[in-house]
Structure formats: structure tokens, C-alpha cells
Amino acid sequence: MTMTRRLIINCDDFGQSQAMNQAIMHLLDENKASSATIMTVAPGFEEAAAWAARRKQRNIGLHLTLTSEFEALRWSSLTGHSSLHDDSDHQYQTVKAFEEGAETGAVLKELEAQYQRARQAGIQISHIDNHMGSLYGMETGRSLIPQMLWKTARWGLPARLFRYIYPGDPLLSSLQNLERPVALASGLADTFGVAIPDYLLSHPFPLVEGETYDSFKKSIIAKLYVLPEGVSETYVHPGAEDAWMRAHIPNWEKRVWEYRLLLDEDFAYGLRDADVILTDYRYVEEHCKRPRLQSAIKLMKVIAAKP
Predict the structure, then answer these.
(1) Chain centroid offset of residue 23 CA
(2) 98 near 104, Cβ under 8 Å?
(3) Where are the beta strands (DSSP E) in 157-279?
């Protein structure tokens, strides 16, 4: 039986700034994106949350945020714990600094505070993901994925992780010895009863030398035709061009291109022509869970196997 190919297009960084909010609200209003994930610690949160709550949006997830990367746009944790901040009393600018400085207990309290703030703002949270992958242990090996999944299970939500590594992905396929961490993380998600997609697909976040909007568009559309069977997620950071973003946000052009791409009729045609179904995390929650007991047994085998 031929499986369908489904794609989640998630807009990260909802609530980061007015430019991001304007673009993401437009894309969701036009049903050009599957979902967005909101940053409760960022300065544009109130605007984004009010919009989502007023419309009773069912496709707004929580973008767990433990880092604050931009020089011109800094934010702090909700709990104010000193181990979550750098010397400027803002969240760390790099994932490495976060992994090295954050206390696990403080992280857990911060995750809960961010979840509660979104709920109190009237957001019907659809799923969980993580800003800059700060919880994944990619810099020092200190993974907080178990803690994230424990929280996510208690909240009863699906999460952005993945079961399989797509060989054509420019980021994940370049990382060495990733198979075991992926098996452990997906096995733990299944054991906790947290639904996850099959694949996570990326594209270069900064501008690539010689890249234009047209070349960027062609590369993304081409990927639609080789999308693996099952449920894949890709993430974008769309922004509406304005003077502040041009002056302060690195690689702002890519954010504008991603916004433009999702409104481009060529991209819409590509989805239809490649027979790709745009889906969301409600589908993941309903169709992508695995039996917990069998998953626990499988996970124990992965743990017991030599790395």
C-alpha cells in the first residue's frame, strides 16, 4: 500500500517581534502554514497571544525558549533563576553557554512557567518545540530531552522530535553518530506517550553565498518532490520586512524570503503537483503514537546495545 506524504510547515519564533508577528499571523490567516510556536519570554508575546486567543487558534504550539541570541533583542527567563542568565541578566546567547550554565531544576521550573503563561493567555497549545535546540545537547552532549518529554507527557501534547534521519537533509545528515541519539529520543517519546513526526527537514538558516530568492525557492520546491513517505516537519522563521528588522536581525533577508515563499503560487502549485498534503500536529497526535509497553521494551534494547 502506498503511504501518503504529509508535511507540517511550522513558523518558529511567533511573539519574537512585530515583524515576525505580522508575517506569521498573515500566513496562518491564509492557511499557508500548518502552525506556529510562540515564545512566551519574547517582547512580542502579548500581541501574538492576544491574536491567537481571540481567534481560538488550534495550531499554536509552545516554543520553549532558553536562549536569547540577538544583540539588539534580548529577553530574560520568566522565573529569573540566575543559572538561566548571563552577566547581562538575560538568557544565554548561545546553546553552549546554556548547556554549561543552566541548572536542571531551574530549567524544569522555567519550562513549566512558560507553559503556564501560554495557557493563562488563553492559548490552546497544540504542540511543543524548542528554540535553537537548546535542550537537545548538540553542543556539549548535555541533553535535557528526557526532562522535556516528561513535561510534554504531563501536558498531554505532541512534540517536535523525529524517528528517522532523512539522508538528503543538509543539517542532520552531516552530523556523525546521530542514529543512536535519535533512537533513544524517539523511543523515550513513544514510552512517555508523546506523539512525534517521522522526519524533521531543515534548510540553511543564514544566506548561502550567491543565493537569491529564486534559487532558494527552486531548492525548496525541489524538495517537495523527494519528500519521504510519512509525516515530515519543516520549520521557517518568516518575517515582514521593516526598518527595525533590517537594522538589527542577522540574515533578515532569509526571513523575508520564507514569508514570501509560503505566499508564492509556485510553492502552492509544487505542493499540489508533488501530491504533498499539508497537515498539522492534530494529525500527529491522532495517528503517530506508538504502543507504550512495546516502545519501552524496544527502548531498553537500544539502551542495552553497545554504542
Answers:
(1) 17
(2) no
(3) 199-201, 230-236, 276-278
Q: In degrees, to the nearest 5, what angle opens at C-alpha 177 toward C-alphas 226 and 205? A: 50
- Per-residue pLDDT at 297 exceeds 90: yes
- Phi/psi at 157 (nearest 5 deg)? -125, 155
CB 141 within 8 A of CB 98: no
d(CA 282, CA 46): 25
0.85 exceeded by pTM: yes
In whole angstroms, what is the distance from residue 172 CA to residue 146 CA? 20
Cα end-to-end distance, the chain, whole Å: 35
Instruction: Locate 142 and state its grid cell.
Output: 548535555
Express each pLDDT in 227-265 by its tens digit. Answer: 999 999 999 999 999 999 999 999 999 999 999 999 999
**CA–CA distance, 128 with 227 (Å, rounded to integer):** 23
Per the CB < 8 A criterion, the answer to whether 11 and 237 are in contact is: yes
What is the C-alpha separation between 85 and 101, in angstroms, rounded?
8
**How far apart, in whole angstroms, are the C-alpha atoms of residue 93 and residue 240?**
24
Enumerate residues 6+ apart whose C-beta is below 8 A from 215.
none
Q: Name residues whose C-beta falls within 8 Å of residue 132's C-beta, 6 or more positions apart in sequence.
A: 67, 69, 95
**What is the DSSP code (8-state) at residue 224?**
H
Phi-psi region of 210 (alpha: psi -120 to 50; beta: other; left: phi over 0): left
